[in-house]
Amino acid sequence: MRKVLWPIVVVVGILFSIEAGARTDFQYWNINEIEWKARENWSLSVSEELRFGGNVSRLYSHRTDIGLKYSGITDWLDIKAGYRQVFDRVGNRWKYENVPHFDGTLGMGLGGFKFSTRNRIEYRNREDRRNDWRYRNRLTAKRPFFFGTFEFAPYISDEIYLDCSKVGRILRNRLSAGTEVKLLRYLVCDVYYMRQSTRGRSGWVDINVIGTKLKLAF
């Protein structure tokens, strides 16, 4: 029972910390991903993401990501090279962003928990804006368990975004809590809540996100 309750307690704590205000938006994000194990230690993935903002009243972002992952260096390190294409609605226009990225993810198990830290370097080629480099680090703690025939993996995670042109300048922070559920042998569903804080010109802007993800891996 404790395994089920601890992520709920975390989510409730986050929800109680939310400050009501005009600058806080409620959004829904959805990702559908397919991952194919091409050969031993190598896998290919492609995902599509839709983001709805304005209190889930309009689609404002569409993202496609493809990646190639290699897991054969050690048991605790995965590396991945990827490319993401972004289309964001700005006013009445859709503007593009091309983002090649490279990931190095370290992982370990301890006391029934799984811990990981994903380190990402990405280059942002943006329409009508300055191109830049960005570093992202995401820490995750996960506690897998079985409930009947289903495997659950509740987790908490925190991700920071750093501006590579200004050492130590935090651009964004994402605090998340959710759970993964293995529905079928090859199908995993992820449901989560996320609090995102982004540095703006006049201060920090927060949004609250309910997200879902379906991943088919074979």
CATH topology title: Porin
CA gyration radius, whole angstroms: 18 Å
Helicity range of the residues? under 10%
Overall structural class, as computed from helix and strand content, comes to mainly beta
Query: Sheet with the most strands?
Result: 11 strands, mixed, barrel
The succession of helices and strands, N to C, reads HEEEEEEEEEEEE
Strand order of the largest sheet: 1-2-3-4-5-6-7-9-10-11-12
Count of helical stretches:
1
CATH class: Mainly Beta
**Overall mean pLDDT:** 91
* CATH architectural name: Beta Barrel
- Uncertain residue segments: none
| Alpha carbon gap, first and last residue | 31 Å
CATH homologous superfamily? monomeric porin ompg
Measured by DSSP, the beta-strand proportion falls in over 45%
Task: Label the overall shape.
Answer: globular
Instruction: Kindly state the number of beta strands.
Output: 12
Count of discrete domains: 1
Task: Describe this protein's structure.
This protein has one helix spanning 2-16; strands at residues 25-39, 42-53, 58-74, 77-90, 93-110, 113-126, 132-142, 145-147, 150-163, 170-182, 187-200, 203-217. The protein has 218 residues and is mainly beta. It has a single domain (2-217), classed as Beta Barrel (Porin), CATH 2.40.160.40. It has an 11-stranded mixed beta barrel with strand order 1-2-3-4-5-6-7-9-10-11-12. A hairpin with a 2-residue loop joins strand 8 (145-147) and strand 9 (150-163). The radius of gyration is 18 Å and the shape is globular. 6% of the residues are buried. The mean pLDDT is 91.
